[in-house]
């Protein structure tokens, strides 16, 4: 990890650079796969599965028999953990239900909003080296609470054509309606446009590699909504001299093992902590099964010392991390000043892993600095708000002349007339 001490403000932009993920240079390749799926449906997806996932499939849908088998293949301890996580995610997201109220903006004019679920949503769940069954819960549970009528899930199978049983079990627990064996670009295209097997959805959620990210970007240009822009995962620990270097190192490594392009950052006011964390990262790294991945990720990672907490908070808000862990003596006061972050973990006993799995908050979060403008996935991600208005006789008398005046000055005479004909009747 790179050690940086008391950088000048002019160096901040360079220091806070993320690993580059240029999806634009993949667009031609990705567009070709999307077009094949649009024209050839299931046949194209089956061919792509054989080519990219090395799985020879005869059909895409996961069968009832496979779902029942998953029940027996998942360890009872993991089942209990999944159920506990599901309960906490459900509790947290259910509390976000929208309660619209009618507002009388002036006598005779009443306006209100109604929350309506997105009827059909698609969830993409990566497989590969780390099958993300936790992401199934993070996406399907709020979708179910929102009232989405059709929850479709796509995930890549292994070379034997099987989906990881924990993904299937989590999908059943969370209320997914239909599950398909499709990964990568072909999965995104299937949900965006529909095939003989896979239904077309209105919004696609979920993380993925650079090809999946590029596919989501392309289909979102005109055909389907997506959850948010995505990039490699990241964590920042904001710490003072009271932080435990063992905890800090463990938190940095828990992010580094995600992938070779992940980024882990420490911003601290203590040079002693910087040195202790560096040594502890080296010690813990040797014990990790995913050491090779974490080691490459650490090349993108930095341990930064700044002069005081004021500067540490400013640098943090400029970075806008996906995950932020605050390990300081006065962490609640520091947290009040955080304005750019995806999800924040407070105190020494709140590791990022808690939010990744079971505390109840959502782990689908904005990366790559998008936390300056985007929120993470929440119940709102699965609903739309429709506005209503009712104008009665008194209301038309009150606002009608103003509407006529404004419409006339915008030279929209038909707009004006729509009010004038009504005013003549009251």
TrEMBL record:
Record InterPro entries: Ald_DH/histidinol_DH, Histidinol_DH_CS, Histidinol_DH_monofunct, Hstdl_DH
GO molecular-function terms, A-Z: histidinol dehydrogenase activity; NAD binding; zinc ion binding
GO BP field: L-histidine biosynthetic process
Residues noted as binding NAD(+) in the record, renumbered to the chain: 124, 186, 209
UniProt-annotated binding residues for substrate: 233, 255, 258, 323, 356, 410, 415
Family as reported in the entry's similarity comment: Belongs to the histidinol dehydrogenase family.
Free-text function comment from the UniProt entry: Catalyzes the sequential NAD-dependent oxidations of L-histidinol to L-histidinaldehyde and then to L-histidine.
Protein name (Swiss-Prot/TrEMBL): Histidinol dehydrogenase
Organism: Bacteroides intestinalis
Gene name as annotated: hisD
């Amino acid at each position: 990890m790179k050690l940086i001490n008391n950088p000048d403000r002019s160096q901040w932009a360079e220091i806070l650079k993320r690993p580059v993920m240029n999806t634009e240079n993949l667009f031609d390749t990705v567009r070709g796969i999307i077009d094949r799926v649009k024209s050839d449906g299931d046949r194209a997806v089956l061919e792509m599965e054989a080519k990219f996932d090395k799985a020879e499939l005869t059909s895409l849908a996961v069968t009832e028999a496979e779902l029942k088998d998953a029940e027996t293949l998942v360890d009872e301890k993991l089942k209990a953990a999944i159920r506990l996580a599901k309960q906490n995610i459900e509790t947290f997201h259910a509390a976000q239900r929208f309660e619209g109220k009618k507002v009388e903006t002036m006598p005779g004019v009443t306006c209100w909003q109604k929350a309506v679920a997105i009827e059909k949503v698609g969830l993409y769940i990566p497989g590969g080296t780390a099958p993300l069954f936790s992401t199934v819960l993070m996406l399907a549970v709020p979708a179910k609470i929102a009232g989405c009528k059709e929850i479709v899930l796509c995930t890549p199978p292994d070379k034997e054509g099987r989906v990881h049983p924990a993904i299937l079990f989590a999908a059943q627990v969370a209320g997914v309606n239909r599950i398909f064996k499709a990964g990568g670009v072909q999965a995104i295209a299937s949900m965006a446009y529909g095939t003989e097997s896979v239904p077309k959805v209105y919004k696609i959620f979920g993380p993925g590699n650079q090809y999946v990210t590029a596919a989501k970007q392309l289909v979102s240009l005109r055909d389907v909504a997506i959850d948010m822009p995505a990039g490699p995962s990241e964590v920042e620990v904001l710490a003072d001299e009271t932080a435990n270097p063992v905890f800090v190192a463990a938190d940095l490594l828990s992010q580094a093992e995600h992938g070779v392009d992940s980024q882990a950052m420490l911003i601290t006011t203590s040079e002693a902590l910087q040195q202790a964390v560096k040594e502890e990262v080296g010690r813990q790294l040797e014990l990790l099964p995913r050491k090779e991945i974490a080691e490459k990720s650490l090349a993108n990672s930095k341990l930064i010392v700044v002069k005081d907490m004021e500067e540490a908070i400013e640098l943090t808000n400029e970075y806008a991390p996906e995950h932020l862990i605050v390990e300081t003596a006065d962490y609640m006061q520091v947290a009040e000043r955080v304005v750019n972050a995806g999800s924040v973990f407070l105190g020494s006993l709140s590791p990022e892993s808690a939010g990744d799995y079971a505390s109840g908050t959502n782990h689908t979060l904005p990366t790559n600095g998008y936390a300056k403008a985007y929120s993470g996935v929440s119940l709102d991600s699965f609903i739309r708000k429709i506005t209503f208005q009712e104008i009665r006789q008194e209301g038309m008398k009150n606002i009608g002349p103003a509407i006529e005046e404004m419409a006339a000055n915008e030279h929209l005479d038909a707009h004006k007339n729509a009010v004038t004909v009504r005013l003549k009747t009251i």
